[in-house]
Design brief:
- This protein has about 575 residues and is mainly alpha-helical.
- About 65% of the residues lie in helices and about 5% in strands.
- The chain has helices spanning about 5-45, 55-70, 90-100, 105-130, 135-145, 150-155, 160-180, 185-205, 205-225, 230, 235-255, 260-275, 285-295, 300-310, 320-335, 350-365, 370-395, 395-405, 405-430, 435-440, 445-455, 455-465, 465-470, 490-495, 510-515, 525-535, 545-550, and strands at about 75-80, 80, 480-485, 500-505, 525, 540-545, 560-565, 570-575.
- The protein has a 6-stranded mixed β-sheet. Strands 1-2 form a two-stranded antiparallel ribbon.
- α24 (about 490-495) links the parallel β3 and β4.
- The radius of gyration is 27 Å and the shape is globular.
- The termini are far apart.
Length: about 575
C-alpha cells in the first residue's frame, strides 16, 4: 500500500512540470498577441475614420500626388512650385501607397502606420537580443505602441514615423554591433545596416538624422570608455549612409542647384537658432512640461522603474540601459535647445523610453517591492477617472456638448476615460506582474480610438476642410481658375486635384517656390486678383479662411455665391 504513492511520484512530477510550463507560457504569448492585436485595432482599422488634417497631412498627401501626376520623383513640388523643406523619401513612400490604394485617407496614412509597427518590432528585437526574454521584448513594444502620443502621430500622414523607424533601426543595429566581437563579420554587417538606416533617415528629414545618431552613439562609447571605437566604428556606417543618400542628393543638385543651400541654411540653421526663421517657436522647457502627458500611462511608472533598476538591476541589460539613457538625454537636450518645436519632433525618443520603462519594471518585479508600481497604476486610475468626471459633470459640460457637436461624442470620450481608469485600477492590484502590465498597455486603447472617431466639431471645422470643399468639386472644372490664400492652398490643390492654384496676397510656405517660378504671376496682390476675376467672370473660385476673406471682400468684385464652413473653417466663393 505504501509503495503505490512512491511509484506514482515520478509520473506526477513531469505532469506537474508540464502544467507549470503551460501556465507560464500564456503570458508571453498573451503579450505578443495583445501587442499585435493592439497594432491592428489602433493603427490600421482607424486610418480612414477621420478626415485629413491641415496643414501637415494634406501637404504630405498633395506632394506625393503631384509626383505621381507629373512623373517627376526627384524635385518635390506643392501647387506645381518647388518645395524644398524636406528630402524626397517620405514623399516616395506616400506616393507608392497612393499608387497602390488610390487617393484616399487610408492610402495616405498607411505608410506611417506601418513604419510605427516596424519600429515596435525593432524595439522588441533589440530587447530580446539583450535579455533573451520574449515577455520583456513584447512589453517594450507594447509600451511604445500604447503611449498616448504615439498612436495619433503613427496614424497621421506626416514624416516623423518614418524618421522614428529609420533612427530606431540605426541605433539598434549600432548597439548590437557594439556588443559584437570587434572586427567580426557580425559587427561589420550590423554597422553597414546601421549606416543604411541612417541614410534612409537622412533622406526623410535631412541632417537631423545624422546629428541624433551621433549624439547617441558617441556619448555611449565614451561612457563605456571605448575611446578607440569612436573612430573605428564610425567609418563603415558613414560610408553606407553616404552611398544610400548620394544618388538622390546628386540628382537634386543637378536639377536644382539651390536646393542644398536653402535646405541646410533655412530648414536647419535658421530653424534651430533663430526665432524669426523658426516655425512653431517655443520656450526651452516646452518638451519638459509636455513629456508626462505624451508618455501616459507609462510615465506614471517612471518612479517604479527607477526604484526597480536601483534595487535589482538586470546584469544582462546593463549596457542596453546605458545606451537607452544616451538615446534619451542628449537628443532631448538638442530638441529643447532648438527654437522651433512641435510635439511630433520628439517621437524618435519614445522607443528608448519604452525600453527603459520596461527594463525598470522587470527589475521592479524582481525586487519584490511592488508598491511604487501599484502606486503608479493607482495614480493613473485616479487621473483618468477625474478626467471622465470633469468631462460630464463640470458646470461647463453644456458648453462642451456644443464644442463636441453632439452629446454622443462627449459620452464616448468620457466612457473611454472611465474604462481606462477601471483597467488601471485593476492593474494596481497586481502590478508589476506581467499580466498587470498587459492591462496597463490596453488601458488607453478605447480613449485613443475615441480621439480618432469622436473629435470635437470645432476641431474638424478648423483642421479638416476636405468634406466641405468636396461638396464644391463639381463646380471646379479644368477651365476654372482657382484662387487661394497661402494657408488654404494645400487643401485646394488636394481636393480639386490642381497644381496651378493662384496665391493671393501672401506666398506663405511657398515663398521659395514663388521666388523661383519661371512662369511668374502665381502670386497676386488684391488689385491683380480683382482684375483677373473681372476678366474671367463665371470661371473663377476663391478658397480662403473666413477672417481673411472678410478683409478682402470689399476690395474684390461682388461674388455670385459664398459658402462658409463655420467661423473658423473655410469659405468657398464663386465669381
Amino acid at each position: 500500500m505504501s509503495s503505490a504513492p512512491a511509484r506514482a511520484m515520478p509520473a506526477a512530477a513531469p505532469e506537474a512540470g508540464v502544467r507549470a510550463a503551460a501556465s507560464a507560457r500564456p503570458w508571453w504569448r498573451s503579450l505578443e498577441v495583445a501587442t499585435a492585436g493592439l497594432f491592428v485595432v489602433l493603427y490600421l482599422l482607424p486610418l480612414g475614420w477621420r478626415p485629413l488634417f491641415v496643414p501637415d497631412e494634406i501637404r504630405y498627401a498633395e506632394i506625393p500626388r503631384e509626383m505621381l501626376a507629373s512623373g517627376d520623383w526627384v524635385v518635390p513640388r506643392l501647387d506645381g512650385l518647388r518645395y524644398f523643406e524636406k528630402p524626397a523619401l517620405g514623399y516616395w513612400l506616400n506616393a507608392l501607397s497612393i499608387a497602390a490604394f488610390g487617393e484616399n485617407r487610408f492610402a495616405v496614412r498607411l505608410p506611417a502606420a506601418l513604419a510605427t509597427g516596424l519600429t515596435a518590432l525593432v524595439i522588441a528585437w533589440l530587447v530580446a537580443a539583450r535579455t533573451r526574454d520574449r515577455r520583456l521584448a513584447a512589453l517594450a513594444a507594447l509600451a511604445f505602441l500604447s503611449c498616448l502620443a504615439v498612436a495619433p502621430i503613427g496614424t497621421s500622414a506626416i514624416l516623423d514615423p518614418f524618421l522614428c523607424l529609420f533612427l530606431t533601426a540605426t541605433l539598434a543595429c549600432f548597439f548590437e554591433a557594439s556588443a559584437s566581437p570587434p572586427a567580426s563579420r557580425r559587427e561589420r554587417t550590423l554597422l553597414v545596416l546601421a549606416g543604411v538606416a541612417c541614410g534612409l533617415a537622412f533622406l526623410t528629414k535631412g541632417f537631423l538624422a545624422v546629428a541624433i545618431a551621433a549624439l547617441v552613439a558617441a556619448p555611449y562609447l565614451v561612457w563605456q570608455r571605448r575611446w578607440r571605437d569612436l573612430f573605428r566604428m564610425a567609418w563603415a556606417p558613414a560610408a553606407a549612409a553616404l552611398l544610400v543618400a548620394l544618388p538622390w542628393s546628386l540628382l537634386i543638385h543637378w536639377r536644382e542647384s539651390g536646393f542644398w543651400s536653402y535646405f541646410f541654411w533655412h530648414e536647419h540653421v535658421q530653424r534651430f537658432l533663430s526665432a524669426r526663421g523658426a516655425q512653431h517657436p517655443e520656450p526651452w522647457w516646452f518638451y519638459l512640461q509636455a513629456a508626462p502627458g505624451l508618455l501616459l500611462p507609462w510615465s506614471l511608472f517612471i518612479p517604479a522603474a527607477a526604484i526597480g533598476w536601483r534595487r535589482a538591476p538586470l546584469p544582462e541589460a546593463r549596457d542596453l540601459f546605458r545606451f537607452s539613457l544616451c538615446w534619451v538625454v542628449p537628443p532631448f537636450v538638442l530638441f529643447s535647445a532648438s527654437t522651433g518645436k512641435l510635439l511630433t519632433y520628439v517621437l524618435p525618443l519614445f522607443p528608448a523610453f519604452a525600453i527603459l520603462v520596461s527594463l525598470g519594471l522587470a527589475c521592479c518585479a524582481r525586487s519584490e517591492r511592488p508598491r511604487a508600481a501599484r502606486a503608479g497604476a493607482a495614480a493613473g486610475a485616479a487621473l483618468f477617472a477625474v478626467g471622465a468626471i470633469a468631462l460630464v459633470a463640470a458646470p461647463s459640460s453644456a458648453e462642451r456638448v456644443v464644442l463636441f457637436g453632439s452629446a454622443w461624442k462627449l459620452v464616448a470620450m468620457a466612457a473611454a476615460l472611465g474604462l481606462a481608469a477601471a483597467l488601471l485600477a485593476v492593474a494596481a492590484r497586481r502590478a508589476p506582474r506581467m499580466d498587470a502590465l498587459l492591462v496597463v498597455g490596453l488601458a488607453p486603447v478605447a480613449l485613443l480610438l475615441a480621439l480618432q472617431g469622436a473629435l470635437p466639431e470645432r476641431v474638424l471645422e478648423v483642421k479638416a476642410p476636405g468634406g466641405f470643399l468636396a461638396r464644391h468639386r463639381s463646380e471646379v472644372t479644368p477651365e476654372t481658375i482657382v484662387l487661394s490664400s497661402s494657408d488654404t492652398v494645400r487643401a485646394a490643390c488636394w481636393t480639386f486635384r490642381r497644381d496651378d492654384v493662384f496665391l493671393v496676397e501672401s506666398a506663405g510656405e511657398l515663398a521659395y517656390g514663388i521666388a523661383n517660378d519661371e512662369s511668374g504671376g502665381r502670386l497676386l496682390d488684391l488689385g491683380a486678383a480683382a482684375r483677373l476675376i473681372e476678366r474671367h467672370r463665371g470661371h473663377v473660385v476663391l478658397v480662403a479662411r473666413p477672417s481673411k476673406y472678410d478683409y478682402w471682400r470689399p476690395l474684390l468684385p461682388p461674388p455670385v455665391s459664398e459658402d462658409r464652413q463655420g467661423s473658423g473653417g473655410y469659405v468657398f466663393v464663386r465669381y
